Amino acid sequence: MSQIEFKNVSKVYPNGHVGLKNINLNIEKGEFAVIVGLSGAGKSTLLRSVNRLHDITSGEFFIQGKSITKAHGKALLEMRRNIGMIFQHFNLVKRSSVLRNVLSGRVGYHPTWKMVLGLFPKEDKIKAMDALERVNIFR
User: Fold this and answer.
1) Within 10 A of 4 (CB to CB), how many other CB atoms are there?
2) Which of 47, 27, 28 is nearest to 36 (CA)?
3) Are 8 and 56 in contact (CB under 8 A)?
4) How many CA atoms within 13 Å lie on the side-chain side of 74?
5) Are 4 and 54 in contact (CB under 8 A)?
6) Taking all residues of the chain, what is their mean pLDDT, rounded to a whole number?
7) For the segment 43-100, what is each residue's pLDDT rounded down to a tens digit?
8) 64 near 89, Cβ under 8 Å?
9) Could you tell me the pTM of the whole model?
10) What is the average per-residue pLDDT within 8-29?
11) Which of 1, 15, 17, 74 lies 20 to 30 A from 30 at CA?
């Protein structure tokens, strides 16, 4: 079972523009994947489709064997919690540290008052530091 799997994924916009056409791709656990292409080739559309910021026209996405394409409501929210994304323009908080920006991905798991006060559990801090270490930002 692939960690991420795209099966015949296509996206056609209402104006008829084809954003994606029959994409098939498997990404295994631990692999790093790079998507390269010219401007307008569909890179951002593909990435935004992974967490359903853009819905696809046909095909299906699987994350750890579960279809995110068919997920709705709480099931979709739960799947999104396990998808990390860094956008082209980052959307980082400039006055926050790198660690705090990474920890912001854990906000949905804890009470609001704790997050406002920056009271992240030790386990979250360890996960964040491990993630930063994995991409050679923290040692």
Assistant:
1) 18
2) 47
3) no
4) 0
5) no
6) 88
7) 989 988 988 888 999 999 999 999 999 999 989 888 887 787 766 666 777 888 889 9
8) no
9) 0.66
10) 94
11) 74
DSSP secondary-structure letter at 45? H
Measure the CA–CA gap between 54 and 40, rounded to whole angstroms. 15
**Considering only CA atoms, which of 73, 74, 76 is closest in space to residue 61?**
76
Give the C-alpha separation, 42 to 22, whole Å: 12
Spatial separation of the C-alpha atoms in residues 26 and 5, rounded to whole Å: 5
Helical (H) or strand (E) element with 18: strand 18-27
Ordered by where they begin, the domains of the chain are: 4-81 (3.40.50.300), 98-134 (no CATH)
In degrees rounded to 5, what are phi and psi of residue 99? Answer: -60, -45
Q: Which of 139, 97, 137, 89 is nearest to 120 (CA)?
A: 97
From the CB of residue 63, how many other CB atoms can be counted at a distance below 10 Å?
Answer: 20
Q: Spell 109-119 as b/e; 16+ CB within 10 A means b.
A: eeeeeebeeee
| Cα separation, 79 vs 17, whole angstroms | 29
